[in-house]
Amino acid sequence: RIRRDLLIDNSSRSIEWFKTFHTLINTGKNEGRGFTVNIPWSGEAMGDAEYLAAWRCVVEPVLDQFRPDLILVSCGFDAAAGHWNAVGGYNLSSQMFGWMTARLAARYPVVLILEGGYNLAAISDAAECCVRALLTLQCPTTAAAATTSDDDDAERQFAASFDRLANDSARRTLKRVCQIQQRYWSTVDWAPAFLTQNQYVQSARLRRQFADLSVERRDQASGGGEPTCRTNLVVVKSEPQSSADGSASSNDCSTSSSSGDVAC
User: Fold this and answer.
1) How far, in Å, CA of 79 to CA of 172, rounded?
2) Which portions of the sequence form the region Disordered (predicted)?
3) Residue 241 or residue 18, greater confidence
């Protein structure tokens, strides 16, 4: 059996050595062509909203099409908030690392290999969130966003990212990544970069409901009787959580009973 490996990499804007190898046009070579997916950020510092956009535009669509047997994560935390500009100066919350881990572990066997980082507090917090995600398979939620304690700044940042659009630099990068990778992966799409994560989740739920309704109506029409409006969508948590500014936020995990896919 031919072994096929897939590499997906998010690389920082500031480290020159990585720029040599982590370019947009590097998609692999020979039998491995098309199995390297680079997302080389540049320009503005990236945070949770930008990584959420990369996830829904590139990472998850490619994984859905590739259907890996095992995922190995080189788990470095240089992008965690608290690092200086020389190693990226990015602003990912610990909860974002946990969210990505939970999304992977809910669907595939996952191994995290601790790599690096330079801020011990940031590394500890991010690693804790990742291990908790592996143990519980639960995405972090915005429950802590309603609190006022200074200790919950990270939770509020994470909650706010679900209602924030990715910055212009991230959207430009994702557009180029999708244009290059579409020749290998038909599922990638940069249009979701123009939605917030909450908007994307809500639109996905509506699409699933309409798809289930269409199937139900077709089945009723072929078998006789009146069509009904029942769907097969099961929402594990449907109550919206309040964000820091009092607006509704719906980034709890839900799952479709037909596929088992977690949607956060």
Assistant:
1) 19
2) 240-264
3) 18
Give the three-state DSSP class for 187. coil
Contact 201, 264 (CB under 8 A): yes
CATH architecture of 7-194: 3-Layer(aba) Sandwich (3.40)
User: What is the CB neighbour count within 10 angstroms for residue 175?
Assistant: 14
Cβ–Cβ under 8 Å, residues 115 and 76: yes
Rounded Cα distance, 207 and 216, in Å: 14
Please determine, for residue 195, whether its predicted confidence score (pLDDT) is greater than 60. Answer: yes
List phi, psi (to 5°) of 114: -60, 125
pLDDT value at residue 139 = 81
DSSP state for residue 138 in the 8-state scheme? -
Give yes or no for a contact between 192 and 200, defined as CB atoms under 8 angstroms apart. Answer: yes
Q: Decide which of 215 and 200 is more confident.
A: 200
The token duo for 237 is 């948590």
- Enter the DSSP assignment of 32: G
| 185 contact partners, CB below 8 Å, separation of at least 6 | 34, 37, 61, 62, 65, 66
CA atoms within 13 A on the CB side of 221: 7
What residues does each domain of the chain span?
7-194
First and final C-alpha spacing in the chain:
35
- Going 199 to 50 to 117 to 34, the CA torsion angle's sign is positive
For the whole model, what pTM was predicted? 0.76
**Strand partners for 7:** 36
3-state DSSP assignment of residue 233: strand
- Cβ–Cβ under 8 Å, residues 92 and 79: yes
Q: How far is CA 98 from CA 54, 63, 71, 137, 220, in A?
A: 16, 18, 15, 9, 43
